[in-house]
Design goal:
Length: 205
């Protein structure tokens, strides 16, 4: 059996453009980042009413994850406990934190308070895809491909996961940037999962 950990698919949302496995599949440079998320939701005909209640960080990660996994059958191939989600970002939930703080001057908004932790995004994705495996959210100034890849590889090596969604999800001050990839084992002709390849994809090299 091939136990090499591989990157089998990846997706980037950056500068109002969505790139799947190196191919631009949707873009609209005329919209704000907030409106672009709505346009992408409509374009890919995603049907998930809870999307409209999410904050912008969750919407960004949700859309990217939906597209990444739309042709995957993870729930058929793996038990919920065998699927992991590991991501990082630079601004935590600051976009929602600021809006919630502003609401305190009048009436504190429970709808905003719900999203004042970045790992709420993980919760949204776990609910959507029935994932019950290892999860974590880290906050760094910039994307750390070495930390990310080493952490995910360790999860595979210690048999904590059999497949894992990993990457970066950030939204702040009207700017959305998300990069997710799927790591799996036993896949021929796929990129080896290491820091060099993860960083190259993130940088768009």
């Amino acid at each position: 059996m091939n136990n090499q950990i591989s990157i089998t698919s990846y997706i980037l949302l950056r500068n109002n453009q969505i790139i799947l496995d190196g191919k631009v599949i949707f873009e609209n440079k005329e919209l704000t980042a907030f409106d672009f998320l709505q346009a992408a939701y409509d374009h890919f005909q995603i049907n998930y009413p809870k999307f409209f209640k999410m904050d912008s960080l969750c919407k960004t990660g949700f859309i990217v994850n939906e597209i990444l996994l739309r042709d995957k059958k993870l729930s058929e191939e793996f038990q919920p406990e065998e699927i992991g989600i590991i991501f990082s970002n630079a601004n935590s939930s600051l976009d929602s934190d600021i809006r919630y703080e502003a609401s305190i001057a009048n009436t504190p908004s429970p709808a905003l308070f719900v999203y004042t932790l970045p790992n709420v995004l993980i919760g949204e994705l776990c609910i959507r895809h029935r994932i019950k495996g290892e999860t974590a959210c880290f906050v760094f100034d910039i994307f750390d491909a070495t930390f990310q890849s080493d952490y995910v590889n360790l999860l595979f090596e210690t048999e904590k996961v059999k497949t894992c969604v990993s990457g970066w999800a950030d939204y702040y001050n009207g700017k959305a940037e998300t990069f997710f990839y799927l790591a799996e084992t036993g896949k021929e002709n796929s990129l080896t999962h290491n820091s060099s390849n993860v960083n190259k994809i993130f940088q768009g090299i």
